[in-house]
Amino acid sequence: xxxxxxxxxxxxxxxxxxxxxxxxxxxxxxxxxxxxxxxxxxxxxxxxxxxxxxxxxxxxxxxxxxxxxxxxxxxxxxxxxxxxxxxxxxxxxxxxxxxxxxxxxxxxxxxxxxxxxxxxxxxxxxxxxxxxxxxxxx
Length: 138
Prior knowledge:
alpha+beta, 8 strands, three-stranded antiparallel β-sheet, Immunoglobulin-like, about 140 residues, five-stranded mixed β-sheet
């Protein structure tokens, strides 16, 4: 009986520690997160261009193509901020950002190139995903 109570108390302490650490990290380290939808696809016989501004829509292109979009990321805060970019979904392993991790001073902006590579394939297919741009306290 004593051993089960000890295990229960240790489990509660571990869960409380994890919860408090998560709250502190979320409220102290992460200043803001911006999420953008992404899409692209393979199309034979031409290139489709997309000019949407509400997401990273790369358009359509033949297999093996590299498609890119340039986005200006600006720090709206009065202190320096670190920017880190992550990719998720079907496009996670085929998309990258250059540069990916950057430090922006107050009201400073930098252009970031988002590049996606369409894999070789024999069929027309669409890919979707999303990117998260993390604004972190340095």
